[in-house]
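Priority: low. Protein: Hemerythrin domain-containing protein. Input follows.
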Amino acid sequence: MTHTMHRSDLTGELKHDHRAIQTVFDRIDCAAETDRERLVSHAAAEFERHAVAERRFLLPVVRCEVRGGDVLAARVEDEYAEVMRALYPAVSASVRDAGFDERVQALASAFKRHVWYCESWLFPEVCRVCSAGELARLGEDFRRHAHRHQADIA
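Result:
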């Protein structure tokens, strides 16, 4: 069933999450040197929370409802792994280290690839097979999860 995405449904919530994390990356680029490491750590924590939530709320739907869902979900897991491979070098680096900017850029690029894949391929498939009501229920569950874990990283 095709429906229009609303922020309150699962795909809308995930897109909102993507934009919020991207905003942190954008802030890193123009932040004062003293704030850059903190912002990288914040982006990393937000992505880790986001990945846990996608695994909990999105990937089961993909695996069970979307044709070829196991393959699509495996691709998302690969995207997570790529971001995580870039995340740890960026988080462990000091802004004074040679290569800090390159590590952060690698992390931001891996995250952008994750966003592109989800929003260009995965979310449209999920919206095609799930009812608006089901996506709204999952969006509410996602919001509760995100709100509960927001305090953990704030």
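Helices lie at 10-30, 33-65, 69-92, 100-129, 132-153. The chain is about 85% helix and 0% strand.
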